[in-house]
Specification:
With 721 residues, the protein is of the alpha/beta class. It is globular.
Amino acid sequence: MNFALMPFCALTEIFEKALGPFMAKIANRLGVDIGGTFTDVVLETATGLHSTKVLTTYAAPEDAIINGMKQVCGKAGVTPGEIGQIIHGTTLATNALIERRGAKTALITTEGFRDVIEMRTESRFEQYDLNLTLPEPLLPRERRFTVPGRVDATGAVLIDLQREAVEAVVDRIAEGGFESVAVGLIHSYLNPTHEQLVREVLAERLPDVSVSISSEVSPQMREYERFNTVVANAYIKPLMASYLGRLEDRLHAEGAECQVFLMHSGGGIISIADAAEFPVRLVESGPAGGAVFAAHIAARHGLDKVLSFDMGGTTAKICLIKDQTPKTSRVFEVARTYRFKKGSGMPISIPVIDMVEIGAGGGSLAHVDAMRQIRVGPESAGSEPGPACYGRGGDRPAVTDADLVLGKLDPENFAGGSIRLSPDASSSALTGVLADVLGMDAEEAAFGVAEVVDENMANAARVHAVENGEDLSEYTMIAFGGAAPLHAGRLCEKLGIARCLVPPGAGVGSAIGFLRAPFSFEANRSVYMRLADFDAEVIRLLLAELQQEATGFVRSCDAESPILSEFKVYMRYSGQGWEIPIPLTEAQAMDPDAETFKQRFEEEYTKLFARTVKGMDIEITVWAVNATTPPIAPDPLQQTNVTGAAENSGTRRLFDPAKAAFTDAQVVGREGFHTGQIAQGPAVIVEDETTIIVPSSRDAMCNSDGCIDVMTKPAHAGGAA
């Protein structure tokens, strides 16, 4: 059966029955997402979802998790000991890389390649900037060591690596007091024996030092990306191992003896042991959960073109979801130094859900630049001290301060009433930093902040769509995260998107996504092959080996569920610099044929570039197999019929950016917003974890599954503000 190319909804129908007994054993499941501002906790029981948001505790992130767990257990009437499974996603790995606060790490590499991570690819991401500053490598030169020995591009050993030479380098590392060592040797993805020898010597002489080898962390071609990835893994490995150990101890102390799993950046779940060994795979684990959440909603509604919009306290994430499956990539950049400009960051070569991320969250700080223009982000107030309105010592205006002044937020009912907001503090911060400088009042400054951040996000979505050859007017937006529903309506106006869905639990969407994600792991390897030299038997053995490796990871997490295999190869025309992903069916992978591979490549190449190149040979560079348990089936969607107008609980003074003026908007409580009811814009739909702003150009209807469907009014159809 063709699992690899089947849509999400078809797979769920096939395997729904198979998952039933498994899910029954873990009826109480906890999803936890640590964000830059809030930690979201969701408990799923037989009676439904119970959620809360608590401020992230940077010094000890596990404190916020325990606090949130106690709150949701209290709401659900269960004890921590009755939780059957905990699935966790975190920004800790990403933050450690951005803030450069990992372990004291050394790199052992091949002679002549000591400076690869500093030389990068020598490409200029800002072509005409004469003062271009390249990001500093994670490790300075004095922490990079070399060993003799050389493997060529076919995997053959040109120069043997002598044990004595390795021991001499390890002795120098011992003198330096390093906590972690990354090993990245040239062409080790084809022949890992030299890296394995280095690890063996390190284990004998420095048993307490953490070791990462590139042939296991990222066995792919392109030494800069591979070396950078193994260095990043080694850099955060002791930190994540310590954190995960403390978390398990704290959970056990509270009576939660269940297994803990981690969300990885590719959109699946791995064991805590695998996460501790390969923590670099946790980069973007939180946003990946959000993409899985959006794909689940898309499957329920039968939507094949979805723009996932996740906006939290620190960043906004935008992802294209086609055929109910998030787009994936092999390389992701962390810590971009030029306003999140592609090429200015630290490339991490791991399987990752492909999304664009910008510094635009509720805590993103605003300032006036040298051109007297309002700029927002990427710096964030986070949770300590937070936006000025939190009253925790912040004195600079954040997006949340602008939203409060513009009437989008209720100061008495923010985060379910757990945090009282101060409009005066917001106005004071906006005035002092922006309004006084630009000669305007606080409300006009707030309007400027909101428009700048919305346009930043709209522009990022446009660029992402163009890069993927997509027309966003054909898409439906799914908005979630604490801040996304506040801005989604305006974003749809700017992008010409007619429909936006805000699901139940949108404020904690990524944490819910963790509970919908399958157990999965992608194994990949670089083995260069031209179609002219196609070797079916080598390919069959390689893919079977990768399938066994990926399946073993998944089986270590889940001993009962069926496991699907998804096959993918990366191909290009000879002479091209980069390749494109080509999905294969299991039959195509297990019985490989050169003509079939060529046909599949030309099909995918034509989709992207509208043409093929005649007379050129085709190359395969990377082979990948993703093993995954079946996706969790969404509840069937019942047809929604209009039943009348929603009951409102009053009106609120709300700023309409399309009209650049305040207006009176009806206020509707989401709990009292029943199936089929309509709330005409302008409207504010309030709930504990977020607020939905319905602009004047839109109406909102409550669907049978609880999703709020924000749609363009007929008079505004096709228009973009």
